[in-house]
Amino acid sequence: MAGTEPEAPEEEAFEEARPGGRVQAVVAGVLPVAIGAFAAWLAFGLRIGSLTDPGPGLWPLIVAGLLVACGVGIAIIAATAKAHHGTEAFTKGAFAVLCAAGALAVYASLFEVVGFEVPTLLLLFAWLRFLGRESWLSSAVIAVVATAVAYALFILGLGVPLPHIIAF
Amino acid sequence: MDFSSVLSGFSVAFEPQNLLFCLIGVTVGMLIGVLPGLGPAATIAILLPITYTLEPTAAVIMLAGIFYGAQYGGTITSVLLRMPGEASTVVTALDGHALARRGEAGPALGVAAIASFIGGTASILLLTFIAPALAGVALAFGPAEYTVLALIGIFLVGTLGSGSLWKSAAAAALGLLIATVGLDPLLGTPRFTFGTDQLADGIDFTIVAMGLFGVGEILYNLEHRDRPQPAVPAFGRAIPSRLHWLRSRMAILRGSVTGFVLGILPGGGATMSSLVSYAVEKRVAKDPSRFGKGAVEGVAGPESANNAAATSSFIPLLTLGIPANATMAVLFGALMLQGITPGPGLMTEHPDVFWGVVNSMYVGNLLLLALSIPLIGVFVRMLRVRPGVLAPLTVVITMLGVYSIRNNAFDMLLVVGLGLLGYGMRKLGFEPGPFVLAFVLGSLLEASFRRSMRLFGGDVTEFVQRPVSGTLVAILVLTAVVVPLLRSVRSRQTAAAERAAAE
Q1: Which residues are CB-neighbours of B5 under 8 A, at least 6 positions away?
Q2: For residues B289 and B314, what is the distance between their CA atoms, to the nearest angstrom?
Q3: What is the ipTM for the molecules in this complex?
Q4: Are B429 and A86 an interchain contact pair (Cβ–Cβ within 8 Å)?
Q5: Is the entire prediction scored with pTM above 0.80?
Q6: Does residue A16 sit at the B interface (CB-CB below 8 Å)?
Q7: Which letter does DSSP use for residue A49 in this model?
Q8: Which of A38, A43, B192, B471 is the most buried (most CB within 10 A)?
Q9: Among partner residues B49, B224, B399, which is closest to A104 by beta-carbon distance?
Q10: Which residues form the DUF112 domain (chain B) (predicted)?
Q11: Among A126, A31, B491, which Cα is nearest to A147's?
C-alpha cells in the first residue's frame, strides 16, 4: 500500500519548516523563566551560604538567575519583534511525536517487569506499522528479526545483562 | 627526553599480539561510532571485564583504539544520516549531511577520513614532543583558571550557533542547571533529586547526549515523516576531489592544532574542539553563509580537531592522572584494574605501557584510514534503508544502549524525557550545542568557582588580579566584545544576501 498516502498540500516547502507565530516565540522566553524560577525556589530550600562560604544552593541559584534573565530577554525581544524566524510551528505530526514518546516510556517501564523481548517486539512492530507505515507483513518480519539480532548482539555478543525471559 | 624509551615503545606497539588488539579496538570503535547511542565510554565500560585477563599494554591499546576509532565511525552516520554517533561529530553533521544530500557523500567522508588521520597523527607527534612541557603549564592551573577556562568554553559554543545569543545563553544556563542534579560535589548534599536515589549520582553525560541528540532527533524527524524524502544521493568517489582538498587543507591544519590544544584541557576534549574548530572555520571563511549548506571546511576542520583532541586528551590522564573526559575516566578505571596508577610516575615507571600505547596510535590511525575508504561504500548503502524502518531500529539500539550503562530502566525514562526536551528545544529555536557543553563543564565550573571563592575569601576581583587567570579573563572579555561585533556584521551580510536572492 506504499505510496497511496496523499501528500499534504501545504507542506510543499519542506526544506524550511514554517516559523511559529508571536505566541510561540514568547513562550520560548516564558518557559526558561518558569524553569529558572522553579529551580531558584528549590535552591532557596538548600543552604545558599555566602560568596566566602558557598552553600549547596548558591551555584544553582546563580545559574537559575541567569536562566530567568535570558528568558526575560527572549520574551521581550519576541514580543516587540516584527518578524519571527526563531521558532518552528507545530504541525499535525507533533501528535505522532507524543505517541512515540509515550510508547517509549511504556517500553522503558515494561522492560524490567516482563523482560526485553516482548516489549521490544511490540515497540518495533507498532512503530514500523503505524509510524513508519510499513506493511503488516514487513513490519512483523522486521520486528522479529531485529529483536533476535538485538538479543544476539547485546546478550550473547556483548554480555549486557538485559532482563530477558528466553535463556540459553 | 629519553628517546630510547620512545623507540622501544615502537617495538612494543609492533608486537603481533598488540597489533591484533589494536585492530580489534579500532574496528569495534568504528562500529560503535556508527551505532548511535552506544558511545565509547559505555562500550569501554562494558568491555572492562574482558580486559582483566589481558596484559596491561594490550588492554589499554585496545580500549584506546575503541576511543579514537569511534571518532572515525561517528562521522559516517553524521554525514549520511545526520545522526551523530558521537557528540564530537555533531557539528560534522551540519555541513557533512548537507554535502551528502547534494550527492557528495563520498568526498565528504573521504575528506573526513583523511582529516581524521592527519589530525590524529599530528597530535601523536605533538604529544610525543611537548607532553612534558605542557604538563608543567597545566600543573600551574588552579581553580580560578579552571573557572575562567570553562566560561570561555561555554561562551565560545554559545556564539557558535546561528540562533540568537539570548537563546544560546538560556540553553547553556539550562545545561548548567541540569548538571547540578545529584549530590553536591563538595558537600554531598542532594540537590534537585526530588527524593529519588536514581538521581543521586546526577545524570550521566551519555544519557544527556543520547536523549538530546539521539531520541530528540528521531522524534523531530517523526513529525515530518510525511515530507517527501529526497532521493538517496548518488555515491561519488570516496576520494575527495582537488577542489575539496584545496578547500580543506588549511582547515585540517587549524583543526589539528585547535584539537591538540583543547584536548589537553580537562573538560575540553573532542566535542569542544570540534565545535570550536567549526566556529573558527566559519569565522575565517570568506563567505560564512556557505556553512550549514555543505561547506567542506566545516567537515575537515572539526574532524581533524576531534581526532587530534581524542589523542591529546590522553595527556592529562597519562601525565597528571586527571581524566579529561568521560572515556578517559573509564580508561583511568581500566588502568587501575591492571594495578597501574596513571600519573606523573607512569612515564618513568611503566615506559613500555606509556610509549607502547602512544605509539600504537600511529598504527591504529593507519588501520582506520585503510578501513574507512573501503567501508564507506558499505555504509553509504544504509541511506537506502527507509527512514520509517531505520528510526525504530535506532531507537531500540539507543534504548538498549542506555540500559547497558547502569543496567537501569529509569535511565531509559530519562532519555525519553531528554529526547522530548531536545525536540521541544528544536521547535522553539534553542540549540542543543551550548546546552550539552555547559552540562559537561558544569560540575568543573561549579567546583572551581566555589574553590576559588573560598580561596579568595569571597572577593570576585581576585580572578582579574592573578596573572594566569587574569590573562584568561582578558581573553574572555576580548571574545565577548569581538564576537557579537562579528556576528552583527555577518547577519547584516546574510540579510543583504537574502534580499539579493529574493529579488
Answers
A1: B351, B354, B355
A2: 36
A3: 0.85
A4: yes
A5: no
A6: no
A7: B
A8: A43
A9: B399
A10: 19-437
A11: A126
